[in-house]
Amino acid sequence: MSLNFKNILFIVAIFLLNSLKITAQHQEHYIEEQFISGTDTLNYRILTPKNFESPNQFPVILFLHGAGERGSDNSRQLIHGSELFYKMKDSFPAIVIFPQCPQNDYWANANIDRSTKPLSLSFPLDSAPTKSMNLVMQLLDNMLTKPYVKKDQVYVGGLSMGGMGTFEILYRKPEVFAAAFAICGAGNPEATKAYAKTVPMWIFHGANDDVVSPQESVDMVSGILKYGGKPNFSLFAKDNHNSWDSAFAEPELMPWLFSNSKSK
Fold this sequence. Notes:
alpha/beta; two-stranded antiparallel sheet; 7 helices
């Protein structure tokens, strides 16, 4: 049977609709929540594991999205990364938190020159956190009071703007995290002194990244080494800014992450 152009378009449309349904199905397992502090509200989605009841305790994964997923719909932040954690929920059960940064804010306190390509970035030390980062830290503090949280297995990761946020929250709360991963991010190499020796890290970047220069991750690795840390570093030779695809496909990422715990 020969296929005409209309039939081909119909088949492609059905395929795309089915793909969207599959995506929506896994995202539906992330429950919509809000964290309210005074007059400020942080939207977030949370995935809870099976047997999520007392006296069971579970690790926590905090994931920070990129600038393109900012907003107020409490949905876009699930575009990248949520499928990985959902697929791995039986092998690596955890409480997974995806906060959403508003459109007009940023996870990290950064000076950004968008007239250059890649971006020109700097991260001042000893500056106040952004409103969104402050709310994320409050949400995390609140989560750590819960009896179902394994406080020695709290992890953080993020991509692009979220990679920058990952480096920043490590600087601001180094005592909390058992391990972290940052994808195509950036930060202040001097800030790594706060966590280089105590928080194992895996840093990812694409060598062809024309949005956030791979040199940014190289500098962070250098900072961690300077202050006594021993990070994993994966530089993907063919990747541009979407190195998160390669990072999420790394089979050792989740086993490595969960192999780390803080000394009690």
